[in-house]
Hints:
Blueprint: E1 3-5, E2 10-15, E3 18-23, E4 29-32, H1 34-44, H2 49-57, H3 66-79, E5 83-85, H4 97-102, E6 109-112, H5 116-121, H6 144-153
Antiparallel strand pairs: 1-5, 2-3, 3-4, 4-6
Amino acid sequence: xxxxxxxxxxxxxxxxxxxxxxxxxxxxxxxxxxxxxxxxxxxxxxxxxxxxxxxxxxxxxxxxxxxxxxxxxxxxxxxxxxxxxxxxxxxxxxxxxxxxxxxxxxxxxxxxxxxxxxxxxxxxxxxxxxxxxxxxxxxxxxxxxxxxxxxxxxx
Length: 155
């Protein structure tokens, strides 16, 4: 089975071995440790779960629980809609062994809700036809229906 980033809802960036994934609909974002980021990168590039699992289990020090840890991680990514099923590819997993050892093979990621209002505000896309974009708050659509729609996305 292969997966890909749920591009309809998510934006992802992996920089300096850390993945950040932002849900554009809710403003919730996720941060992953370097080992988990390496797994995530391989996953969204089209490596199969089997390929990732075999790759990691071939490394010295890989825990016997890795297969169940990986499956739990995939289930969590799916439940939060970060990934969706992808097209079958021949991409071979290349999980970074140094990062695996540095992180003790621990799949670890966190969910953050502290920037929801900021991430959902998106004033650049809040353009009014008659005024265009303006940094002035008065130019934003503040009718009660729009405000209720934005607030419903906050958790």
